[in-house]
Amino acid sequence: MNKQRVKKLQKTLQRRKLDAVLITEPHNRRYLSGYTAADHGIQETAGVLLIPKKGRPWLLTDSRFALQAEEEAQGFAVELYTKGIYALLKKLLPALNVRRLGFESHYFLHSSSAKLEDMAEKVKVELVPLLDLVERMRAIKTEEEIQLIKESVLLNEQVFQAVYKTLAPGMTEIEIALALEQSMQTMGAEGPSFETIVAFGSNAAKPHAVPTNRVLQDGEIVLIDMGLVLQGYCSDMTRTFVIGKAKKKFKQRLRIVRKAQLAGIKAIRAGAVCREVDKAARKVIADAGYGDFFGHSLGHGVGLAVHEAPGLGSRNRKKLQAGMIVTIEPGIYLPDWGGIRLENMAVVREDGCEVLNEDSTGLEL
Amino acid sequence: MNKQRVKKLQKTLQRRKLDAVLITEPHNRRYLSGYTAADHGIQETAGVLLIPKKGRPWLLTDSRFALQAEEEAQGFAVELYTKGIYALLKKLLPALNVRRLGFESHYFLHSSSAKLEDMAEKVKVELVPLLDLVERMRAIKTEEEIQLIKESVLLNEQVFQAVYKTLAPGMTEIEIALALEQSMQTMGAEGPSFETIVAFGSNAAKPHAVPTNRVLQDGEIVLIDMGLVLQGYCSDMTRTFVIGKAKKKFKQRLRIVRKAQLAGIKAIRAGAVCREVDKAARKVIADAGYGDFFGHSLGHGVGLAVHEAPGLGSRNRKKLQAGMIVTIEPGIYLPDWGGIRLENMAVVREDGCEVLNEDSTGLEL
What is the DSSP string of A238-270? Predict the structure, then answer.
């Protein structure tokens, strides 16, 4: 249990006149309780937190997770449900004198909300759908968290370099992706933070390419987008390069993408509007004539989840705050030719930002 | 695209007077379209199917997935959204003359359903929450699917045996879990179907144990629960054994669990009630005096998802049907001592069932 985080949340509950909140989102659950169990998808939870506006918080789970819950969620009262969670809540909410209960609307299934409503009606509890209550806390990292994320970023780069050294024509995308994911594990990561992308030549035109048996040719584009989880915290990095002699066109486009990335990095500081940061990088690509070939947003927050707030996209009018960590990942994608993307992570500071990456592959201008 | 599956679904839509259905659940999406992209959690979809009651089905996605969608979802009209999915649906639904639209209530967030309702109201579309429409189709496997699942089961056993041979006192749980997951990948699997469980001694008392740095002692219990994905289809197997000389108590309890498993297997046939199958196995464990130490249900369906319908639990009154594939995994868990679980998979046949496993580790009576 992270006492400070629970207390901060409880203060928010009091301010919003909520008697308690149900926490169903797994990263939020871990953030508040330290309980690390994984869900089997949203339909099969490993447990739910019930945080009252004051006093001891609860972790509700089933017998399969009983021991792990007791061990990890220190300070939480662990309660097991045998007849489902709603039967347990029906007893617990009146006992805790809960009249207004918040729930995570963005991590609560439509079908489950029908059951929750049924139960709430019977015990006369008013339900309040909430968005991003804990996510807003998570978006701003403490220095301790920044340190953990930096360790994740640096291990990710070490893994990249260990495999990068071995790359040669004749290898397949799958082979390289496997080598990367295996190195992550042997080098101490909990696992990849998302499915590793390795794409050659025209395959690199798909921003979310899945590795295939395509064989690397001399002089062909290699795009690697990879990340890992270390102590719960994610990293995310993309490098694009050529094994052998790079064509002029590649070098030229790589420089444009790098310039766009630097323009994005330059625009980041506490108070900057997210969409303006996206715009700063996008302008470089548009000015070079590739505006139609950069279809995704510039970046996203990273923390316990590999994609979290804030989004650096053209529709986000919110302002960056010190302690946020974002990716800066512009790209150019040309279906018949291939694609280039460069991605680093940075922490937002009062007067600018601090790039967390040290690796410079493909970043020379 | 699987034409037969889409046609079958369209017939169901006609019967239920639905003009179209939105498919958001990723396994259902893959089952119907062949599109294999992975979601980054339920909050970040790689695309949604819109299946009208007749005619060409649609795959709605964003530019990141455009090429993969076109390649994989043969027969589907691929349409990209740039301003979000609801803006696109607002145009598409009236054009397709949709008046009644089904959606997957069990894979639709409460927060998204609010947006869906907004949009539906504007274009005068009636929304119908659906449960398990495609899951009911998926629960019954074709012989072709059974063959794919058998290949997944057999590869999983080969991986188990490759690592089992190397086990020795001094190894850690994490080390063995890593070796298993790496072997899965090098031996051709797409990846593990869930986080591999390796638990020694008292750690085995947690049904969902997470591997730790605990060091294996001579004569200690080893519980391994592992599965992989091959050609999209999952396997799931548990073995419990001892490296070195097993204690009498262990052998005795292992025999009870195996007898319970055999009783469960014997109870499986088309027409058998799911809870009765659970009961048949549970009775063996209860009769031996361990009824309070088998807290989870006997098994679950396996297919494109590692946990799917049908559930073999004490609350499921539905009947098994030929072609269903289930796990049979009784266990005994004693907090201070450890745990034993044995898990095989079987396909339900008219007159009994066919166990898909060939591995016999720990299964001798």
Answer: EEEEESSPPPHHHHHHHHHHHHHHHHHHHH-ST
